[in-house]
Amino acid sequence: MRAVTKRRTWLYFIPYGLWLALFVIAPVALIIYQSFFDLGHHFTLGNYSTYFQSATYLKMTLNSVWYAFLITLFTGLISYPTAYFLHQLKHRQFWLLLVILPTWINILLKAYAFIGIFSQAGLANQFLTFIGIGPQQILFTNASFIFVATYIQIPFMILPIYNSIDDLNPAFVNASRDLGASNWQTFRRVIFPLTLPGVKAGVQAVFIPSLSLFMLTRLIGGNKVITLGTAIEEHFLTTMNWGMGSTIGVILIVAMIIVMTLTGDKKPKGGAPR
Amino acid sequence: MSKKLANGYLILVFAVLYAPIVFLIVYSFSQGETMTNYHGFTWRHYQTLFSDARMLAIVANTLLVALLSSLIATLIGTLGALGINRTTKRVTRESLLTLNNVLMVSPDVIIGASFLIFFTMLKIPLGFGSVLMSHIAFEIPIVVLMVLPRLREMSSSMLDAAEDLGATTRQLLTQVIVPFISPGIFAGFFMALTYSLDDFAVTFFVTGNGFSTLSVEIYSRARQGINLEINALSGVMFLFSLLLVGGYYWIQQASQKRKHRKREVAS
């Protein structure tokens, strides 16, 4: 083939190769390396034994996974119908753009908006007073954390599901209807299984970040909710115990790999990323 | 009936999606000091914002980091995509792509924490430099992902033709390949820009004391409570995002139109 070009142009590849080595491989290696050192820079397995023997850490991990699960579940329940109905609209490209637009607003501004909405005299409490329930403590509760996290993740779930619905061949749906399937049967046996890859991609896009949303736990959860991300931030930037922080980081990476394998494409070809 | 239900549901979802943003912007014009009762129209918070020297410096920093990092990331990412596209072995290509996507799927905290260890070990001072490098690092993979599909669309006969006609490697790159993949490069640049402007967690880890970006500043101010200057800031940023989305949409439409035109010519 183009042997000449091939030989001459490998030089262009150097910056990218350097990036791979320095900013992809080295950091992952470093965080694993760091997890074997204690506060006095001595090699130790202590961080891991502390982690696995401490009820606090294990409970925190379970809690974090549970919250991420709830956030993913709610996001999915809201997003699937949205993507489905959105796909039936006339100007769907435009509406899709309107779904994407909020993701371009800085996440902290959105969190900040909810500090105002959920505050003592905020919009949510005015509404609760109006319908006769009376003002409640909303900010700094677990529910508010889950609500805001779900709010932030919804567009990231809608997009992949929308794409998979877009890929669905309408002939299958028509065939199923012609063969006498009810709407529900068509959905359960044809549409949903065929759009499952989109749901899986959405779960990937939502579940992993939900394990690490430390700014939301601080701003909205009022330090009551502690996720893996909060714990890492705490260890790195507050208590300066990098070894323990890295250990939790390694746990988070392992969790990430588990989620990726569970939701990964099992098709032999492997979809091209886009 | 079901159509009405569907539309009602969509209206509800869109209302919830936009309510907080509208809420923020509405109160940026309120005369009060909190986001509770609307007290009549004023531009005061915008005036405060535009005379806040610290905030303006941070905005300038943020834009500088975003533009500079996106430019560099676009350059490196495009070269990387060219390299990946040229690999002939399937295994090499797949493993390169997997490595490329590591930073795309890693949680922000992991990226931030591991970069912090990295910079500290190399004794690189935390500040503008470390933030810039981190932003370049997490923007490169998205550029690669945006450029690669365009490269795959490129027919090799076009390259062979250029080569047969005596094009040098440089000419091949600048006059054939780059013009063809430019929509992908622009899309990558825009995505890199938004990634940079949107990032909080990674910057928060590697920023040190002296340097701050908008996200980090909003975080520290939001922890102190409500300040309508932030609302004014969000109004300005919303306008800015609208422009960016508009620009991105326009580029996509333009590239699609070009594709259509080409198809028409071909048929």
UniProtKB/TrEMBL annotation, chain A:
The chain crosses the membrane at residues 12-33, 65-87, 94-118, 240-264. The keyword Isomerase does not apply. Keywords: Cell membrane, Membrane, Transmembrane, Transmembrane helix, Transport. InterPro entries: MetI-like (IPR000515), MetI-like_sf (IPR035906). GO terms for biological process: transmembrane transport. GO terms for cellular component: plasma membrane. It comes from the Bacteria. It is found in: Cell membrane. Residues 61-263 form the ABC transmembrane type-1 domain. Belongs to the binding-protein-dependent transport system permease family. CysTW subfamily. This is Spermidine/putrescine ABC transporter permease. It comes from Levilactobacillus koreensis. The lineage of its organism: Bacteria, Bacillati, Bacillota, Bacilli, Lactobacillales.
Automatic annotation (TrEMBL), chain B:
Gene3D superfamilies: MetI-like. The keyword Transmembrane applies. The chain crosses the membrane at residues 9-29, 55-84, 96-119, 131-151, 172-194, 232-251. It is found in: Cell membrane. GO terms for biological process: transmembrane transport. PROSITE patterns: ABC_TM1. InterPro entries: Bact_Polyamine_Transport, MetI-like, MetI-like_sf. Residues 59-249 form the ABC transmembrane type-1 domain. Keywords: Cell membrane, Membrane, Transmembrane, Transmembrane helix, Transport. Belongs to the binding-protein-dependent transport system permease family. CysTW subfamily. This is Spermidine/purescine ABC transporter permease. It comes from Levilactobacillus koreensis.
